[in-house]
Amino acid sequence: MKRFCLACDLKDDPELIAEYRRWHQPGEVWSEIIASIKQAGVRDMEIYLQGCRLVLIMETDDDFTLQGKAELDRNSPAVVEWERLMWKFQQAVPGVPRDQKWTPMEQIFKLP
Fold first, then answer.
1. How confident is the model at residue 90 (pLDDT cuts 50, 70, 90)?
2. In total, how many domains does the chain have?
3. What is the mean pLDDT of residues 31-39?
4. 78: nearest Cα among 15, 38, 33, 46
5. Domain, as residue range, for 95
6. Which of 53, 60, 93, 98 could bridge 64 with an S-S bond, Cβ 3.0-4.6 Å?
């Protein structure tokens, strides 16, 4: 099993943040999106929010890659539409290309 931690920012707008939160409540994420995530080899996924910063933690199959998931996403009309909708709320983390949504974070500590 692999673990990934990624970051993305939300636009600093309380109404947009509230709407983004609503989209991620149980039953609101499209079933095609949940299926796509699982089919890609993601076994568990959590998103945390602090202010405007999102942190996504994924546990995946050993053969999962972010590049492979991105390729699957580009070939799924539902995922393309979902990502277009979510980009209304999201923005790149400072220092990352503006068109890059979720940015891998570097692990700097692990409990021995």
1. very high
2. 1
3. 97
4. 33
5. 2-103
6. 60
Q: Is residue 50 part of a domain?
A: yes
Give the Å distances, CA to CA, from 60 to 34, 41, 43, 44.
14, 6, 5, 7
**Is residue 3 scored above 90 in pLDDT?**
yes
Q: What is the CATH number of the domain that holds 13?
A: 3.30.70.1090
In this predicted structure, what is the pLDDT of residue 85? 97
Is 79 part of a structural domain of the chain?
Answer: yes
pLDDT band for 97, please (50, 70, 90 cuts): confident
Task: Assess if residue 67 is contained within a domain.
Answer: yes
- Give the angle 82-84-89 at the CA atoms, nearest 5°: 95
Residue 111 falls inside a structural domain: no
Name 2's bridge partners: 60
Query: In sequence order, which residues have a C-beta less than 8 Å from that of residue 37 and are 6 or more positions away?
Result: 45
Tokens encoding 44: 């568990």
Dihedral sign, Cα of residue 71, residue 44, residue 62, residue 56? positive
